[in-house]
């Protein structure tokens, strides 16, 4: 039996295909572990295992019941749910069942399409469920086929997510060809790979279109325009600021005893600089330290403020979400803080006026394990402090 399996050309081809695809996917997939796989736009799932041919009359014909199974599916995320951090994907797949027999070995192939749903059971466990239907090829004839599977994925790594699965497959027979359908029950090991993770704050509802999601917008019904955004309160205008102490639209500090809405004024020598004073954050994609197009306006406010107020300095504080090792997240937060500090230095601000801190996952903006909370926690904040050290 074992010699027959090793000499089987279809199985060798399947093994080579699985190993090659796994290596290529592992090289191409991101290497960090920040956030859950529900954020991936595209997912490749490979399965390999063994099982049993359920139809007794078919087992008698080929004198075999043991079957080897291999499958590959690629899924495109079409919906995402905050409940259980679940993703719904449209999926296309290929499956093959190989039945080694000393009398007559048989192999069946299926090309299938369907839906896959993967809710999270915990921070590290997911329950992938899928149902597919399509074309099955057996004995040189094409037939209707279906497949349904359930598994358990362990998200301990970002690049490769291992798991276990159980699958039921069926190829429907024409009564003129065979009295019963080919039915399989198999189980084994799965590997999943994800790409284009774009879990960003811009993925969430934003009623006023100001790039600040409603969940984090103190002023969700009004959008700043014409340069009147309040750097202290993202999503609000200067006129909506309840406390006049802070930074004006032009980046200048306000006197603490100023009355009414904050005006665009310069700081007199009698003004006291708040210590510390926090400007709105900038946000990052998953496992990314690159500045996107939403960061530049905030960084420009920081630069303008430092230029207009030589008595102050800035502390650039990097953060990460809580997924993954704490030390990795601290290093990621440091890279994010350095990226923002480099931008400020490139604008002509002296390095001795810029401090850098990396707090990793230690100080979340929102202490919840949901996609929107993790998006809010992947950030860099700016603390304005007085010049004296």
Task: Summarize the topology.
Layout lengths: L1 H6 L1 H20 L11 E14 L2 H7 L3 E16 L4 E14 L6 E13 L6 E2 L2 E10 L2 E14 L6 E11 L10 E16 L79 E7 L11 H14 L3 E8 L6 H21 L7 E7 L10 H7 L1 E8 L3
Parallel strand pairs: 11-12
Antiparallel strand pairs: 1-2, 1-9, 2-3, 3-4, 4-6, 5-7, 6-7, 7-8, 8-9, 10-13, 11-13
Descriptive notes:
The protein is of the alpha+beta class and 389 residues long. It has 2 domains: 2-197, Porin, CATH 2.40.160.20; 201-386, 2-Layer Sandwich (60s Ribosomal Protein L30, Chain: A), CATH 3.30.1330.60. It has helices at residues 2-7, 9-28, 56-62, 295-308, 326-346, 371-377; strands at 40-53, 66-81, 86-99, 106-118, 125-126, 129-138, 141-154, 161-171, 182-197, 277-283, 312-319, 354-360, 379-386. The protein has an 8-stranded antiparallel barrel. The protein has a 4-stranded mixed sheet with strand order 10-13-11-12.
